[in-house]
Structure formats: structure tokens, C-alpha cells
Amino acid sequence: MALVRPNQTHWNSIFMAVDRLVRISTEKGEDALYLLFNELRLPR
């Protein structure tokens, strides 16, 4: 499952990006998000 990147041309792009993060968390578990954030060097 790929991440969705928000942009200015689609009014709902932020919603879609957040929805994708929630789906990843629901389907693959919160550990998947922690691993992803670590790989991208993002704060949790």
C-alpha cells in the first residue's frame, strides 16, 4: 500500500493522505506506521 501525498490541485488530498495512514494502521498494525516513520526519519 503506497502513501498518498497531499497536493494543491485536489481539494481532498489531505483527507486521502490521512485516510491512507489510518488504513495502514488498521490493516497492518501500528507497528507498520512506527517502522515507516523510522525509515523516513519522521517524529512520532
Measured by DSSP, the beta-strand proportion falls in: under 5%
How can the largest sheet be summarized?
A: none
Shape: globular
* Helix-and-strand structural type: mainly alpha
Order of helices and strands: HH
- State the distance separating the first and last CA atoms: 20 Å
Number of strand segments: 0
The value of Rg in angstroms is: 11 Å
Which regions have little confidence, pLDDT < 50, spanning 5+ residues?
none
Mean pLDDT: 86
So how many helices? 2
Helix share of residues?
55-70%
Structure description:
Helix content is 61%, strand content 0%. With 44 residues, the chain is mainly α. Helix 1 (13-28) packs across helix 2 (30-40). The model has no long low-confidence stretch (mean pLDDT 86).
Summarize the structure.
The chain has 44 residues and is an all-alpha fold. 61% of the residues lie in helices and 0% in strands. Helix 1 crosses helix 2 (30-40).
